[in-house]
Amino acid sequence: MIRHFLRLEWKQYFRSSYWQKGIALKIIMGFFALYMLLTFLAMGFFSFRALKKFFPESDPLQIVNSYLIFVIVADLIFRYMMQKMPVMNIKPLLILPIQKSKLVHYVLGKSAFSFFNVMGLFFYIPFSVVLIGEGYDANGVLAWLFSMILIIQATNFLNFLINKNNKAFWTLVVVLLGGFALKYFNLFDLGAMSQTLFDGVVSNPIMTIIPLGILLLLYRVNYSQLKSQVYLDAAVSVKTKEASTADLSWTKRFGDVAPFIQLDLKLLWRNKRAKSTLPVLALGLLYGLFFYPQPMYKDMVFMYAFIGIFSTGAFLINFGQFIPAWDSGYYSMLMSQNFKYRQYLRSKFTLMTISVVLLFVLGIPYVYFGWKILITHFAAAIYNVGVNTHVILYGGAFNRKRINLEERAAFNLQGTGAVQWLIGIPLMALPMGIFGLFNWLVNFETAIAVLIGLGTIGIVFHQKIMTVIIRKYAASKYKMIHAFNQTT
Amino acid sequence: MITSTHISKTYGNTQVLNIEDLKIPKGQSFGLVGNNGAGKTTFFNMLLDLIRPSTGEITNHDIAVNKSEKWKTFTGSFIDESFLIGYLTPEEYFYFIGDLRGMNTADVDAFLQPFEEIFNEEILGKKKFLRDLSKGNQKKAGIVAALMGNPQVIVLDEPFANLDPTTQIRLKKMLKSLTEDREVTVLISSHDLSHVTEVCERIVVLEKGIVVKDINTSEETLTELESYFSA
C-alpha cells in the first residue's frame, strides 16, 4: 500500500506545473533552497567557535540551550504561517478500498518529512558533530540531538493542532515576545529554564523519553482528531469565504471603462495572487529610504532616476507585467463580449496612471533629502505615464502564460516568462541610462527636461500608440486564448 | 442567418472539423449532437471567433466573425465555466455583463426578476463568489448571463449538463419560447438526445468533425438518433 502512495507522491511532484517552468526559474529557486541549507550548515559548523570567541567564559552548548525554547516557539509561529497539512491530496482516495486509518497515518507520516522538519537538521547535526569533536560526552550529545529531532517532529504535529486556532497563534507570539521581554528586564529568565531542561538531557540521556512521550501523545491526538474528520464536509473541504462587496460606483466617472476598472479593483482585492502586488507598493514607495540616507549615493544622481521610476512605478511594473494574464481565466468570455479592445486596455492604462500619480504624491516627503530628488521623481512619474505604461501594455501582447488567481503568491512565479524578465530592462534601465547620460554630458536640468519630454510625447500620442498596441493584441488574440486555456 | 462555408480545422495531421456548407436560418433552434471529440465545441468556438478555422469562414448575420466584431452586440454565449469570473459574486457578474451590453443596474435587476425561480434562492444575495458555487449553479448563472441584452443569436454548449430537473424543464420551455417569433436563433449542443429533440427543430449530427446527419426534427427523430448512436 505504502508503495502506491509513494508512487503517487512521486508523480505528483514531477508532474506538477513547477517542473514545466523554464529552466532559469528552476535554477533560481534551486539556488535559493541551496542558500538556505548552506546557511544552516555553516551555522552548525561554525557557531560553536563563534560563540566561544564572543562569550569565552560560557559554554556554547549552554548558550544554545538557553535560546532553544525561543527557537521552538519561533519555529512554531513560522510553521503556523507557512505549513499546512496536505489533506486535500487524499480526496480522490477516500472512495477507494483503503482503510481510513491507513490514509491518516500516511498523511501524518508524510508530514514528518516536510522541508520544515529537514531544515533544522542541517544545523543540529553538524553542531552535534562539532560538539563531539570538541570532547563533549558522545552519549549526552547524541541524546540531545535525538531530543531535538523528536522536538522538531513534535512541533510539526503541534502546529497541525493549533492551525485551526488563531488564539493559539497569538498566545505563542505573546509567549515569545513576553519571554524575551522578561529576560531583558531580568524579571524571570525563561532562557535559564530552557537551559536547565536541555542541559539536563545532555547530562541524563534517559530524559530523551520526555520529548518522545510528548511526540507520541501529539501524534495520537492528531491521529484521532484527523480520523474523525476525513469527510468532505470537514477536514477535506475547501473553505469558502463570504463575499464582501464594496460600493465602487465612484468609478462611474471613468465613463465606458468603468466596468473594467471595477473588475480590476475586485481582481486585486479578492485574489491571493493579485493581492500580493499590493505589499510591493509599500516596498517600492519606501525603496528610496535604502539609498537616500546614505552619503555615498549623494553624488550618484543617475540613481535618483532609477529610484524615481521604481517607486512611482511599483504598481505599474508589478501589475502591468501580467496584463492580460490576470484575466486569463475568463479571457474567452471577454473576447466574445461586446466591447472594444481599446476600452479594455484603456482601463488598465487608467489604473496604472492613477497608481503612478498616487505613488508620486505619497513620495513627496522625499523632498527631505533634497529638491533634486523630488524633481527627478516628478520627471520619472511623467516618464512612467507617458512611456512605460505603453511599453508594458505592448509587452502584454506577448503574454502567453496563464495565471491561476487562487494560488498562493509567495515564490509563485507562475505566469512569468522570458518576456516578463526582459521587459524590466527597458522599463527601468533605459530611463536611468538616458537620464544619467544627459546629466553627465550636459547638466541636471537638461536630463530632467529630456525625461519629461519623452513622457510628454508619449502622453500626447497616447491615442496613436494605443492603436498600434490594440492592433498587436488583436493579432495575437487566438494565440492568447489558446495559451490561456492550458490549465497545467 | 449563420452561414459557414468550407470550414475546417486541422491540428498537425489530425482534422478535427470539416464542414462543407452549413446554413442556419434566422429564428431556427439548432441542435448539435455527437460523441466526445466530434467537433461541437470547436464549431461553437469558431462561431465566437475564439478559434480560427484552418480554411473557410463563418458569417453571423452577414458579418464575417473574424473580420469584424459587430456580431458581438447581438450574440450571447456560454461555453463553459471558464466564461465566468470566479472572484465576482453572481450579482456583480450580471451587472458587469449587463454594463457591456448597455444595461444599467435597474435593467439588470428587472431582467433577473423572472429567473428568480430558477435561481431557487441559491444564487442571488448569497454573498458567495461564483467560484464557490456548485457546478449546476455556476451553469445557471452563465446561461442567464448569455441571455442578457436581447441577443439575436444564443450559443449554449451543453446547457443541460449539471442542471437540476426543474431547471432543465424550465430551460427547455424558455429556449422554445425564444424561437417562437422567429427572431432569435438558438444554437445548442447536447449529449442528451431527448432534450435536443424536444427543443430543436433541426439537429445536425457530427462525427469526427464531419456532418453525418442533418435532420428536421419529427416524431421519429429520437428513435432515429438512438439507433444511429447505438449502432
Which secondary structure elements does this structure contain, and how are they paired or packed?
The complex is a heterodimer of chains A (488) and B (231).
Chain A: H1 2-15, H2 17-20, H3 23-54, H4 60-82, H5 100-111, H6 115-133, H7 138-162, H8 166-184, H9 190-203, H10 209-227, H11 258-270, H12 272-275, H13 277-286, H14 288-291, H15 301-312, H16 314-320, H17 331-335, H18 341-362, H19 371-396, H20 418-422, H21 424-441, H22 444-460, H23 462-475, H24 477-484
Chain B: E1 2-11, E2 14-24, E3 29-33, H1 40-47, E4 55-60, E5 63-64, E6 75-78, H2 90-100, H3 105-112, H4 116-119, H5 135-146, E7 153-157, H6 165-178, E8 185-190, H7 193-199, E9 202-207, E10 210-216, H8 221-230
Parallel strand pairs in B: 3-8, 3-9, 6-7, 7-8
Antiparallel strand pairs in B: 1-2, 1-4, 4-5, 9-10
Annotation keywords:
heterodimer; A: 488 residues; 2 domains; 71% helix; globular; B: four-stranded antiparallel sheet; 8 helices
Quick overview:
The complex is a heterodimer of chains A (488) and B (231). With 488 residues, chain A is mainly α.
Description:
Chain A is an all-alpha fold. Chain A has helices spanning 2-15, 17-20, 23-54, 60-82, 100-111, 115-133, 138-162, 166-184, 190-203, 209-227, 258-270, 272-275, 277-286, 288-291, 301-312, 314-320, 331-335, 341-362, 371-396, 418-422, 424-441, 444-460, 462-475, 477-484. In chain A, helix 15 (301-312) crosses helix 16 (314-320). Chain B has helices spanning 40-47, 90-100, 105-112, 116-119, 135-146, 165-178, 193-199, 221-230; strands spanning 2-11, 14-24, 29-33, 55-60, 63-64, 75-78, 153-157, 185-190, 202-207, 210-216. In chain B, the strands form 2 sheets. Chain B has a 6-stranded mixed β-sheet with strand order 6-7-8-3-9-10, with helices on both faces. A 4-stranded antiparallel β-sheet of chain B has the order 2-1-4-5, with helices on one face. The model of chain B has no long low-confidence stretch (mean pLDDT 90). The chains are: A mainly alpha (488), B alpha/beta (231). At the A-B interface, helix 11, helix 17 and helix 24 of A face helix 2 of B.
